[in-house]
Amino acid sequence: MGEAERGEAAPRKQVTFHCSQQHQSVLAFAREAVVPESWDCPKCGLPASMDELNPPPAPRIEPYKTHLAYVKERRSDTEAEDILQEAIQLLRSRRKSGEIIF
Ligand SMILES: [Zn+2]
């Protein structure tokens, strides 16, 4: 895939894609280019879309968990929930400030 035109003068539009890891990727397209519905996130490689609230689901890359592993993981639900909420808050506050999330 070669880029025929690399001129800075070409009109561009910026499109933000969101993956299920909550990465935001701003991509520049030629104004007349058709923006694809999905794009591989440059940060993690997962599929990303323009719909921030409904990014494409991540393909299953985690190894299958045994029932026992699942139970062990859930032994402290409230603690896990707290950690999750904290992480979500952190992501949200970072996103507001425009910081790139890795
Ligand atoms: Zn990503």
From TrEMBL:
<feature type="binding site">
    <location>
        <position position="41"/>
    </location>
    <ligand>
        <name>Zn(2+)</name>
    </ligand>
</feature>
<keyword id="KW-0804">Transcription</keyword>
<keyword id="KW-0479">Metal-binding</keyword>
<dbReference type="InterPro" id="IPR038638">
    <property type="entry name" value="RbpA_sf"/>
</dbReference>
<keyword id="KW-0862">Zinc</keyword>
<comment type="subunit">
    <text>Forms a complex with the RNAP catalytic core and with free principal sigma factors.</text>
</comment>
<protein>
    <recommendedName>
        <fullName>RNA polymerase-binding protein RbpA</fullName>
    </recommendedName>
</protein>
<feature type="binding site">
    <location>
        <position position="19"/>
    </location>
    <ligand>
        <name>Zn(2+)</name>
    </ligand>
</feature>
<comment type="similarity">
    <text>Belongs to the RNA polymerase-binding protein RbpA family.</text>
</comment>
<keyword id="KW-0805">Transcription regulation</keyword>
<feature type="binding site">
    <location>
        <position position="23"/>
    </location>
    <ligand>
        <name>Zn(2+)</name>
    </ligand>
</feature>
<dbReference type="InterPro" id="IPR025182">
    <property type="entry name" value="RNApol-bd_RbpA"/>
</dbReference>
<comment type="function">
    <text>Binds to RNA polymerase (RNAP), stimulating transcription from principal, but not alternative sigma factor promoters.</text>
</comment>
<dbReference type="InterPro" id="IPR018527">
    <property type="entry name" value="Rubredoxin_Fe_BS"/>
</dbReference>
<dbReference type="Pfam" id="PF13397">
    <property type="entry name" value="RbpA"/>
</dbReference>
<feature type="binding site">
    <location>
        <position position="44"/>
    </location>
    <ligand>
        <name>Zn(2+)</name>
    </ligand>
</feature>
